[in-house]
Specification:
Hypothetical protein af1432; 0% strand; 2 domains; 24 helices; binds fe (ii) ion; 60% helix; mainly alpha
């Protein structure tokens, strides 16, 4: 249930009921990307968790909180992606995906996992150096990575307006029944009931999808009383053959069918404030993916709104532009931090991967009710005036002005901020570049709007905040000592 009262204001067509559950279910696919999981991981975890909730019997309010906690459990995942990638010298999404199948309470399993994941393309010496660095961090290192993720996830859930029950479940996602989980080592009923359901549900989903139901049952039996609460294990083992649960693995309309699990009396139609919170919350997830793009989406949104205001747009048109700007880089959640944080020039192959991110943004948003109208604009932010941009390579003059404003704002924000391979540029230099590209890469109308907005401003202070974030990340890994 939402903390704030939800008004009955309708979005989209007059009188249309668009439930928050439909929106959050569709947005959860963005979180699957950053966790290295295939689309539908969070949705299937939700299906399993809601099935378990029915088996053990919990109230409507708890069920509703659980529903959102299961879908949003990985909200904090992007916040440790950069650090994971740096520590392992590997693709963060692969490291995270493989971690889900490891019983990390066993030292031997941990060693095998680290050996297999560390610096996969590196030489033996690189691997050894990384392994030593990881060993030096010890369990405290793992604990800190999980702590960052859980705390950040709970914080964003609160900002989205979800209840403390939901936030607490996300905080407890990796706590184990025997007290050997993270981050606090809570034991038994010290762990919130919804957190206990989240933990077992996500594990069942991974084993069932990757290795089948027998493997899922086996892992539940093996970890019963250690990772998982015995009552939940029994509930799963006695009901896992039920058709209503098994359908989840072959359901073609997973995201839309999922919403029946939210108790009817708790369903609500979204309002404009909720949509703004979703855009803001998910932009926080995107911006946390790399310290180099810390507050990038936020900055692009501010600049886009500034341009739109300076050319006299009405507020209702600005509202959707701001949401599109906040969400424009959603697809970056599917790109490895090995590429995003690379200190040198990207290879052609790496750049080809980066170029997929606007398409991913468009694909995700096109499936989100009440936000699907933003999909084309958000997905077009790397198109150019002369048609030599990506991912479609169409002339941006054929796109709505919203897309061209977003593109100018994106370039301006990106060039004034530092990147791993260059310093942030002074705004005069960035304006000179944009001026030169006007009519080839950049839309002249959007550029003149940017000039009007800038008139006397200076963006240098934002760069300092960003560099602080990078330094913090590197110090956390011991790289700056
Ligand atoms: Fe982008
Ligand atoms: Fe961007």
């Amino acid at each position: 249930m939402l903390v704030e009262s939800i008004t009955a204001e309708r979005q989209g067509c007059e009188g249309e009921f668009i439930s928050a559950s439909e929106i959050i279910a569709a947005m959860s696919t963005a979180l699957d990307l950053t966790e290295g999981q295939p689309t539908g991981h969070a949705a299937r975890s939700c299906w399993i968790g809601m099935h378990l909730a029915s088996q053990i019997g919990i109230g409507a309010e708890e069920k509703s909180a659980l529903f959102y906690a299961l879908l949003l459990k990985d909200l904090g995942c992007s916040s440790n992606a950069s650090k994971v990638s740096y520590l392992f010298a590997a693709d963060d999404r692969v490291v995270k995906r493989e971690f889900k199948t490891v019983n990390w309470q066993s030292l031997w399993n941990n060693v095998r996992y680290v050996v297999s994941q560390v610096s996969p393309e590196g030489r033996t010496w690189d691997k050894l150096t990384r392994m030593l660095a990881l060993a030096k961090q010890g369990p405290e290192g793992t604990k800190n990575l999980i702590k960052t993720r859980c705390e950040r996830g709970a914080m964003i859930a609160r900002r989205l307006g979800f209840s403390e029950l939901t936030a607490q479940a996300i905080l407890d996602l990796d706590e184990h029944w025997n007290g050997k989980g993270y981050p606090l080592g809570k034991k038994g009923h010290e762990i919130s009931q919804l957190g206990r359901i989240l933990n077992i549900s996500q594990t069942i989903e991974v084993f069932w999808r990757e290795m089948g139901l027998i493997a899922a049952k086996e892992v539940v039996k093996q970890r019963c009383g250690t990772w998982f609460e015995p009552a939940l294990c029994r509930a799963f083992l006695r009901s896992c053959q039920e058709r209503s649960l098994q359908r989840m693995m072959c359901c073609e309309n997973l995201l839309t069918e999922l919403v029946v699990f939210e108790p009817d009396q708790m369903r609500f139609s979204v309002d404009a404030a909720f949509l703004d919170r979703v855009a803001q919350g998910f932009s926080d997830v995107v911006d946390a993916k790399s310290p180099w793009t810390y507050k990038h989406s936020q900055g692009v949104a501010e600049i886009s709104v500034g341009i739109a205001r300076s050319i006299g747009w009405a507020d209702d048109r600005i509202v959707s532009l701001r949401r599109a700007a906040l969400l424009h880089d959603l697809g970056k959640l599917g790109i490895s931090n090995r590429i995003l944080d690379k200190p040198g020039k990207m290879t052609d192959e790496e750049f080809a991967i980066v170029k997929t991110h606007p398409r991913l943004t468009e694909e995700i948003l096109s499936k989100v009710p009440a936000l699907s109208e933003l999909a084309t604009v958000a997905g077009a932010h790397h198109e150019r005036w002369d048609g030599r941009g990506y991912f479609r390579g169409i002339e941006s003059s054929s796109l709505p002005l919203e897309a061209r404003i977003l593109m100018v704002a994106d370039i301006f924000e990106a060039l004034t901020a530092a990147r791993p391979y260059r310093d942030g540029m002074p705004q005069e230099k960035v304006l000179a570049i944009l001026e030169k590209d006007c009519g080839t890469a950049v839309c002249p109308e959007a550029y003149s709007g940017l000039l009007k907005w800038i008139d006397g401003r200076n963006v240098a202070s934002r760069v300092e905040v960003q560099l602080e974030a990078v330094e913090k990340l590197l110090c956390g890994t011991g790289a700056c000592s």
